[in-house]
Amino acid sequence: SRALRLRIHHVNGRHLNVQASDSWHQPGAYERPRNLSMGPNVMAPAPICALDEYCLENILERLSLPDQVHFARTCSRFRAVYQIASPRLHRIMNLRHFDDMTVWDMRDFFSLSGNNVQQYQGVIPTARSQRLCDFLAHNCKNVKFMELFHSPLSSRCMYKIFAKMKKLEELELPMSNTTDYGVLALRKLPNLKLLNLCGNPLSGSTLYKLTGPIEALSLNECVTFEAFHLTRICKSLTHLKELSIKNINTAFLNSYKLLVVENACPALEILRMTAFEGDEYEYIAQLPSLKHLTVYTKAMGRTTLRLELFQQLVEHKTEQLKVLEISGNAQVSRAMMNRIGMLKSLKQLLLPRIETDNVIEELAHLDQLERLSICHAFNVIGSTVLKLFCACPMLTFIRLDECVDPCDKLVLGIISRVRKEMANREMHRKLPIELSTFIQGTITDHLIKNSETVPKDIINVKCTSLCEYNVMNIDFANMLVDDYDFDPDDLDLDEDSDDDLDDLLSNDDIYDVGFLDDSNDEPDNYD
Prior knowledge:
The chain is α/β, with parallel strands linked by helices. The protein contains 17 helices and 18 strands. It has helices at about 55-60, 65-75, 75-90, 105-115, 130-140, 155-160, 180-185, 230-235, 255-260, 305-315, 335-340, 380-390, 410-425, 445, 465-470, 490, 500-505, and strands at about 10, 15, 90-95, 120, 145-150, 170, 195, 215-220, 240-245, 270-275, 290-295, 325, 330, 350-355, 370-375, 395-400, 435, 460-465. It has a 16-stranded parallel β-sheet that branches. Strand 3, helix 4 and strand 4 form a beta-alpha-beta unit. The radius of gyration is 29 Å and the shape is globular. It starts with 7 loop residues before the first strand and ends in a 23-residue tail after the last helix.
């Protein structure tokens, strides 16, 4: 107790911060909770002790996480109730629950429930983050899913956390300051299938060394990524089925041509990429297993949408491509729409803006089309959409953002068509039909309130607007501000280096020695 009278102690020229939670390192700190028992001079137990285990478990469920830990400390009976309920209560954990917990509470939670947690999500709290990393490293061997958003981690922390998570299948680290050196900490994850590294300062030079059966890789907004690594990465990830590289500049590098020529990703089914000027990205149509293609176009400057892409898709993917999404501010010409209309197996189509209203007629031969969205539909009229609806027997979802044409005739026309198909036993659509368009304050808005005229089991009309569209399409990765401010001294987030621990510590640092251990799983070099 004398040590606690002073907050800072000086040992061998170091500043040490001592706090009450360090008492778990003292002799006797690990005694088991005592049973509540009656004695000659002991008061009668609290009324809660008369409740059965079912009632105690119901009480436990309604407590906050710190109070659940306090509940488990009370006595061996309460701890037994906690341990029975924990696998159900703590299977999925949000890291915000640790914000208000003391280090002692955190330590007891991970000791009791760490192996019950299968999924972590959220932001690593800045306070006592090093302690939390240590607890994650030593007490969470059964985690399968982890999503750490905007949670900067040094390479040292990454090696510590992921060294023993052999069951991890999905890992998301967007905007977490993950470097190429930190990526190497993921080589020991034998079951990793999904990896999200969006918005990190990566060049991509070490990604090819990952050995897990990765099926989905996201590198969106990694603006320092060097695209010439792409072929090597795809060739090493032999199970890769989904690749997202939004805003990765591949212009003038022939990256997509090399993917095809070297057969780098034979299993790739889903590709999301940005069309840059000067890039011959039409080669992606030759990827052998491609079924889903999303193309982002630059919002400013000249259009980067190439007619050659649609020509190649018709040549190579007429019977295979299921989803085509074109996002951004580009305009789809009649010639492009004509080629899109030849993709017979297409089920889902998203368009940015179209040249004129009547070019929609080019889609009339898409017999398998189920979902159609037009982001800038200000020049689209309801009668044209109704003709397309009648021509596409599988169409069940229509979204028209920025559409200013009254849609009352479109709504009534869809209802009439559906009833006719039902009467003729030609119904192939999934009901109700989903229609999203601007209806607020219009005739359609009053019309859909009449359940007899507009049956809910036939059509569900949702009002959308320009404001809603803009919110749904915000690029949050580019809009993140410093909402989660942090102290580098707390997080150990300084630039990665090969210096030993003594070189990293300075005389001005104050340390909570409870988290430090002798283990260090970092490799000496990249190889």
